[in-house]
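Why run this: before we spend reagent on co-expression, it is cheaper to look at a predicted model of the complex and decide which construct boundaries make sense. The entries below are exactly what would go into the expression plan.
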Amino acid sequence: MNSGEHADTTGGNGVDGDGLHGDSLHGDGGKKDRLNFVEQEIEKDLQSPKLVGKTFISRFPPEPNGYLHIGHAKSICLNFGLAKSYGGRCNLRFDDTNPSKEEQEYVDSIQNDVRWLGFEWDELHYASDYFEQLYDWAVQLIKAGKAYVCDLTSEQTREYRGTLTVPGKNSPFRDRSVEENLTLFEEMRAGKYPNGARTLRAKIDMAAPNVNLRDPVMYRILHAHHHRTGDKWCIYPMYDWAHGQSDSIETITHSICTLEFEDHRPLYDWFCNELGIYHPRQIEFARLNLSYTVMSKRKLLQLVTEKHVSGWDDPRMPTISGLRRRGYTPESIRLFCEKIGVARFYSTIDMGVLESSVREHLNAVANRVMAVMNPLPITITNYPEDQVELMEAVNNPEDASAGTRQIPFSRNLLIERDDFMENAPKKFFRLTVGAEVRLRYGYIIRCDEVVKNAAGEIVELRCTYDPETRSGAETATATRKVKGTIHWVSAQHAIDAEVRLYDRLCMNENPEDVPAGKTFLDNLNPDNLKVVTAKVEPALKTAKAGDRFQFERTGYFCVDPDTTADKLVFNRTVSLKDSWAKEMSKT
Ligand code: ATP
Ligand code: MG
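The model came back. Tokens follow.
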């Protein structure tokens, strides 16, 4: 398949036109200085007689049983990135061999996420398209005496398999005749037997040191509706039988997968060799593990179904859709994948690396705005009551083309409660009684008086401003230095916004490392979401879902799709500084 499928899938899908696609790795479209180990192997192979003059072809093979997560992004960047740097191709293949867990919703979300990350597959395939061919090949192995129908239950099969130290035992059904096997296999397909009654197994070696070679199951009986093939099949191929053969059909040159499959490689090779078909090379790399989160689809599904989060795209989830809703950009995720590289050994990457990647990109592209999370009213007593001045503010100091905007300044402002302290220590450079501070894009003010309510809580600050210090004005006093600059909004002009302050999903670095009787759910961070009503500058009235901003001095924020005409909702993508790093260095 099929350039047609490819052609009608490119429009309007959010693939950014920056051509970044890992280009920063290969600035001249050529080679990087240092190749990772996968690239070193590929370079050698492409010179070998088998592949010389051939096109490099890889694939990304997700099982459509959940949404993609940041670990998948690593595999996507690797597979599509290699295809790009070797002038080759990369397919998207759904490994849809397990109908009970798979759904069209997942197929759609996976395609959407791959494109959003900035990649486009050359061919779109489904392992289920190969069911007929796989069946024919199974018949071929039966005829060659290399596969047999086995009646052991799954428990018995496990018992007979032995362990790492104890060899397995032959199944009593191992020596069935070819004719009997052919008949039984046909009957399995025809639906004559219930679930689990029989399997088709490869006849290899029950004493093989590699347990995967001890007569692995190729087919199981499963009367289940498949999201694509409907009720056509009631036997389904196992991963090991479907995967390598699908690679072979697509003439994948390099089948790149995660390390758990290293021990399956001999079986991958055995099937291709016994069938005498095109034989791709499998190369394994270490899967991504990230601290403070979980990554297995089973656990992510559990978070969703047990409502610990609002859905697969909850901004606390490590899914691509969750990261997108949180405000991550495709560029930041690709940058992260580039930073962590590809290795042969397991390691856990600190969440801080992902967060610093999004800070890095948003610093370059996000417009700055002012928003006050926890407002404290201030009155500038010497500022005329009905005067409003429009202050010129720079949208993005990193990007002159982002231009400027105007912010209304008036007598009644709101500042962050944290930016005032009544009995401040010496090094407190924000506002305190008798001290001066600059209001960003505004004036220098001095706090003269604190107003409290009956309960002794501060309800207002009374301040005076120095009219000579307007930001940007070309006078000597205007450039007078004060130690602190704080942000603010004009009380009468500011608009309300719901701000969802997201934090890390889990409170421990390794949430799956739990004592007996506990699960990762016991490690969920109880403070991973706080909702506040903030006051934001009026320019944000027109912000649209997905727009990203830096709230000055606070962090990066993204407009949530829950936003409506009369309610603005922001998600905190990440704070400006890494508060977790501080926490850790304290201990
Ligand atoms: P999970 O264990 O989360 O359910 P999976 O391996 O079953 O993941 P698949 O849909 O089979 O998920 O994965 C598709 C591809 O993505 C595979 O090639 C797999 O190796 C790769 N992949 C999955 N998780 C990671 C990860 N954490 N790091 C790197 N690659 C991954
Ligand atoms: Mg898998």
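Residues 1-30 have pLDDT under 50 and may be disordered. The radius of gyration is 30 Å. Bring this page to Monday's planning discussion.
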